[in-house]
Design brief:
The complex is a heterodimer of chains A (365) and B (501).
Chain A lengths: L6 E9 L6 E6 L5 E6 L3 E8 L10 E9 L6 E6 L6 E5 L4 E5 L18 E6 L6 E6 L5 E6 L4 E7 L3 E8 L6 E6 L6 E5 L4 E6 L5 E7 L6 E6 L5 E6 L4 E8 L2 E8 L6 E7 L11 E9 L4 E10 L7 E11 L8 E6 L8 E6 L4 E8 L1
Antiparallel strand pairs in A: 1-28, 2-3, 3-4, 4-5, 6-7, 7-8, 8-9, 10-11, 11-12, 12-13, 14-15, 15-16, 16-17, 18-19, 19-20, 20-21, 22-23, 23-24, 24-25, 26-27, 27-28
Chain B lengths: L3 H10 L10 E6 L1 H13 L7 H16 L3 E4 L1 H19 L7 E2 L4 H10 L13 H17 L6 E7 L3 H6 L5 E2 L4 E2 L3 E4 H10 L47 H12 L6 E7 L5 E8 L5 E9 L1 H15 L14 H9 L9 E5 L50 H18 L21 H17 L16 H11 L18
Helix pairs in contact in B: 2-3, 2-12, 4-6, 4-9, 13-14
The chains are: A mainly beta (365), B alpha/beta (501).
Function (chain A): Essential component of the cytosolic iron-sulfur (Fe/S) protein assembly machinery. Required for the maturation of extramitochondrial Fe/S proteins.
Keywords (chain A): Repeat, WD repeat
Protein name (chain A): Probable cytosolic iron-sulfur protein assembly protein 1
Chain lengths: 365, 501
């Protein structure tokens, strides 16, 4: 154990049920729902609630629904729209499914029943090979996806689950592993097997285009996460490091820090606001969770503090505050995602090659 | 492989005419390629250079330096494509085939549809592209006039697009009887420029008589005469788009064939950019929509057209997936039906943003700018794309400027495309009789009618043969073979390797 660390990671729940490796999890941003996807082509939905008994501090999770997606191959990633009403699935069958519940005009908001049937409302075709990642922009107006076909697609979300293709970005030279949106602006980032990260914006006169390429990783970049305040971008790589990039100009990002500790490929990272251990710390940038092929989960606290080189200047600081090894036994851990809902900032979920989804909580030690 | 080296290699090894193995070398150049060369020349010269000047200079190079026997541009072949295309649209409109009809001149689009959108194939026009019509004209009509069989001709085309090489090598354009292709070798504009560089040819130097129109008065021999191969029409700049004017020529045909053309009003609407525009013909009094078309360029807009056509026509888009996803298309149709506009009748689809003037085979912009994207706005050559951009390399302060460079250049090529010589003054009738001279398009129509009559061996009809004339059955089936083609879906499975990622 790591008794010298200021926090520990409690296992809150182990959610079994997928019949093949679990790839990804997504927390519904507005409702107490967690979705997971798997090579078994299913999406499983879990509800959770804050315990009424104050003596029991952990939320309780229960499986409420399984969506047999009908995708012909693995469902690699899932993403909720910011409204929480729509779920997107990215599959190795090259398609993206858009799932929602039939809207009943008369029904009140409170009548939401997550166990009611989720239907495929739209199918986004275009990728030629395995779709690897899918993400909604902060406003919910845009959806991005990426694929082994080396492309990144941007779709505009229209009413009635209709979509319009806004851009097909053919910038990467290899498989694109991940797409991520800036938390407030329409800036898109993608990460690839070509070891680079690319950043895109819309040219209102024209199409989406790549305004910057971030080289630096020495192997595949698997995952991306913007800081909650949007000033930083973290990237996770097969080179076992996590790099932090800072926005120094409107359209310019620079490498500022590296987080080392993982022994193997870092497959997934998530950057949440966290619950800073020192509540007086005004410089906190939140908590970053990372995991990967070594089965280790690290939780890093990031902040702004005096620079090591020149204490009179401010610089990005980082420290590990908690760590779990063998999070899914001997298996790879494929994803880690913080819960975005207020009151649950210390909660995150992971999905592993053992087919299990686990929920964890960071608790000061 | 089809390349400028292959052309040189062929010409060097082509035995001289007495040999029975001699093949007559013929070259046909697309107007968009001429525009690319013209824009490149104009940017380094004080006076703009016209397409006909470029054609003259390239012709002299191809004949005198390379040894081609004949040099053509492909606009008369395009004229035939447009005529046949309008005929096909009328057939579909009358219930014989599916609407909307989608343009078929862009091989990038056609190959893409065959590979990933088999359900779109019934909508794609079966009329041959200008390149392939030119192949048919050169190998089967001009060849016959010259006393050559198709295999005794070596036909090269110059195109703004790499995918035209794929089009030329399609099985449908291979002549089994003579074991030869309608177009033997396609080179891009850039490869033509390489040929000129190799041979030290300076295209900026004028050639004699380059400002003299080739056919001073466009006069026609009496009806019934054969078309004269030496009076092959050239540089017919069809009004509309620089990518072939497919939509515009359909609209013109519909308007001119309407009972009262004056009652039709054309409105255009830009959907998002100049690359996606809608054109609607409305009856002025009744408000009835007679025709709804769109011009849709670029891979991104193409996706939306595929989705829209699939939705409007109620066909399943894409490969689809088994199970619950299969019924999705129907569901959306039902939901959207009420508020959805009536679908299109026709879409001019081109895979490149800005169309063929911005094709992948065109010359690079003259300004030596750092390219973040290629001429098509995206990179097909993965090796060359921006991965190697060094960490220390600073990007332009306004990151958009590199893209604007491309766009500005494409505008110059577009302008060069439409830059024609001043129309020569009408020649006064020499002998006082009323002049038989007609407009280039009337001349081309007449010429096309004669070509059709000769190529289809049509039985005599009352009056002269026009493109729309209904011929005898045998002639109609020959017309079909000569000027139409077909498409087939390519099975392309997502590779099911046991990939960990």
């Amino acid at each position: 154990m790591n008794q010298d660390l200021p926090a520990v990671i409690h296992e809150v729940a182990t959610l079994e049920g997928h019949e093949d490796r679990a790839w990804h999890v997504a927390w519904n941003p507005t409702r107490p729902l967690l979705a997971s996807c798997s090579a078994d082509k299913n999406v499983r939905l879990y509800a959770y609630s804050k315990p009424t008994d104050p003596a029991v501090s952990e939320p309780k999770f229960s499986h409420i629904s399984t969506i047999p997606t009908g995708h012909a191959k693995t469902v690699r990633a899932v993403a909720w729209s910011p409204s929480g009403k729509t779920l997107a699935t990215a599959s190795f069958d090259s398609n993206i499914g858009i799932w929602a519940q039939e809207e009943d005009g008369e029904a009140e908001e409170g009548a939401f029943n997550p166990a009611a049937e989720w239907e495929c409302m739209s199918l986004l075709e275009g990728h030629e090979t395995e779709c690897k990642s899918v993400a909604y922009s902060a406003s919910g107006n845009l959806l991005a996806s990426c694929s082994r076909d080396k492309t990144v697609w941007v779709w505009e979300v229209h009413p009635d689950h209709d979509f319009e293709c806004m851009g097909v970005l053919m910038e990467h030279t290899q498989d694109v592993k991940c797409v991520a949106w800036h938390p407030t602006e329409e800036i898109l980032a993608s990460a690839s097997y070509d070891d680079t990260i690319k950043l895109y914006i819309d040219d209102p006169q024209e199409d989406w285009f790549c305004f910057q390429t971030l080289p630096g990783h020495t192997s595949t970049v698997w995952a991306l996460a913007f800081s909650p305040d949007g000033r930083f971008l973290a990237s996770a790589s097969d080179d076992t490091t996590i790099r932090i990039w800072e926005r120094v100009q409107e359209h310019k990002w620079e490498y500022v820090d590296v987080l080392e500790g993982h022994e193997r490929s870092v497959y997934s990272i998530s950057w949440g606001v966290g619950k800073p251990l020192d509540s007086d710390d005004a410089g906190s940038l939140g908590w970053l969770a990372s995991t990967g092929g070594d089965g280790i989960i690290y939780v890093w606290e990031l902040g702004v503090g005096p620079s090591a080189k020149d204490p009179s200047r401010k610089a990005l600081t980082h420290r590990v505050i908690a760590k779990v090894t063998e999070a899914h036994g001997v298996h790879d851990v494929n994803s880690v995602v913080w819960c975005p809902r207020a009151g649950f900032e210390d909660l995150f979920a992971t999905a592993g090659d053992d087919g299990a989804v686990k929920v964890w909580r960071v608790v000061p030690s | 492989m089809q390349s400028h080296a292959e052309v040189l290699n062929f010409l060097e090894n082509n035995p001289p005419p007495p040999s029975c193995h001699h093949r007559l070398p013929v070259i046909s150049i697309a107007p968009q390629s001429l525009a690319s060369l013209a824009a490149s020349l104009s940017s380094s010269s004080s006076q703009p250079v016209s397409l006909s000047q470029v054609l003259r200079r390239v012709s002299v190079f191809c004949r005198d330096v390379l040894g081609f026997a004949h040099v053509y541009d492909t606009t008369f072949a395009r004229h035939i494509s447009l005529l046949e295309h309008a005929k096909e649209f009328a057939e579909r409109k009358s219930g014989n085939g599916k609407l909307p009809m989608l343009a078929s001149a862009c091989p990038g689009w056609v190959c893409y549809a065959e590979k990933t959108h088999g359900e779109m194939l019934p909508f794609i026009s079966q009329t041959k592209s200008p390149q392939q019509v030119m192949g048919t004209l050169v190998k089967e009509w001009l060849g016959a006039k010259w006393g050559k069989t198709p295999d005794q001709i070596y036909h090269v085309t110059v195109m703004p697009c790499y995918d035209k090489k794929l089009e030329a090598s399609r099985q449908d354009f291979y002549n089994e009887a003579y074991a030869t292709r309608d177009v033997d070798c396609v080179i891009t504009t850039g490869e033509l420029q390489l040929l000129m560089q190799d041979k030290g040819w300076d295209l900026s130097i004028p050639v004699p008589d380059e400002n003299v129109p080739r056919l001073p008065p466009l006069e026609l021999a009496p009806a019934g005469d054969a078309a004269d191969p030496d009076a092959f029409p050239e540089l017919l700049m069809h009004p509309g788009t620089s990518s072939g004017s497919y939509l515009q020529s359909l609209i013109s045909t519909i308007v001119s064939s309407a009972p009262d053309p004056g009652t039709l009003e054309l409105t255009t609407k830009t959907v998002r950019s100049a690359d996606y525009e809608e054109f609607t013909l409305t009856h002025r009094e009744t408000g009835q929509v007679v025709f709804r078309g769109a011009k849709c360029y670029g891979f991104r807009n193409l996706q939306n057209v595929v989705r829209k056509v699939g939705r409007d026509a109620g066909v399943q888009v894409g490969r689809g997936a088994a199970g619950r996803l299969a019924g999705v298309r129907g569901k959306v149709v039902r939901k959207g039906a009420a508020q959805e506009d009536k679908g299109y009748d026709y879409v001019e689809v081109m895979a490149c943003p800005s169309g063929c003037v911005n094709g992948g085979g065109q010359l690079r912009p003259v300004q030596a700018e750092k390219q973040l994207a290629d001429a098509e706005g995206f990179s097909r050559d993965w090796q060359e794309s921006g991965v190697s951009l060094g960490a220390e390399e600073s990007l332009p302060a306004a990151p958009i400027s590199a893209k604007w460079g491309d766009r500005e250049w494409t505008k110059k090529v577009e302008a060069a495309y439409w830059r024609t010589l001043p129309t020569p003054p009408p020649t006064p009738p020499a002998d006082g009789k009323p002049s038989g001279s007609v407009s280039p398009f009337e001349y081309a129509d007449e010429y096309a009618g004669r070509v059709l009559r000769e190529m289809t061996k049509a039985a005599p009809v009352e009056g002269k043969v026009e493109w729309t004339t209904k011929l005898d059955d045998a002639a109609e089936s020959r017309r079909q073979r000569l000027f139409r083609t077909q498409y087939r879906a390519v099975e392309s499975e997502v590779v099911g390797l046991a990939v960990k990622w």
